[in-house]
Amino acid sequence: MDYIERRYLDDPPTVADLREVLAQLGLEPWDITRTGEPEAKELGMAGWSRTEADREQWIETLASNPKLIQRPIVVTPDGRAVVARDEQSLKSVL
């Protein structure tokens, strides 16, 4: 299968990119946040509210701190997406 690799630290996703991939994943920004990372702990993200009203704050923070995004995220040409943390997740979109 052909693919395009995006090095998210060199080419971080924009707020719009994150909105799109979250829609493809069917997840919320807090679902793809690495809250155990030192940066997330410094920001106190584990205690942030997880409501629709706070969604943009999460997305903007992920765009500014791409290291906090779970990875890898695989997006197929037909728009399906998955956080491919294990082989089964990856197989679900292939």
Provide structural commentary.
With 94 residues, the protein is mainly alpha-helical. It has a single domain (15-91), classed as Glutaredoxin (3-Layer(aba) Sandwich). The protein has four helices and two strands, in the order αααββα. Strands 1-2 form a two-stranded antiparallel sheet. A hairpin with a 5-residue loop joins strand 1 (73-75) and strand 2. 13% of the residues are buried. The mean pLDDT is 92. InterPro entries: Arsenate_reductase-like, Thioredoxin-like_sf. Pfam families: ArsC. This is Arsenate reductase.
Q: Could you give the topology of this structure?
A:
Elements: H1 15-25, H2 38-43, H3 55-64, E1 73-75, E2 81-83, H4 87-91
Antiparallel strand pairs: 1-2
CATH topology: Glutaredoxin
Structural class: mainly alpha
Radius of gyration: 13 Å
Strand order of the largest sheet: 1-2
Major sheet summary line: 2 strands, antiparallel
Summarize the structure.
The protein has helices at residues 15-25, 38-43, 55-64, 87-91; strands spanning 73-75, 81-83.
Question: Which labels suit this protein?
Answer:
mainly alpha; single chain; Arsenate reductase; two-stranded antiparallel ribbon; Arsenate_reductase-like; 94 residues; Glutaredoxin; Thioredoxin-like_sf
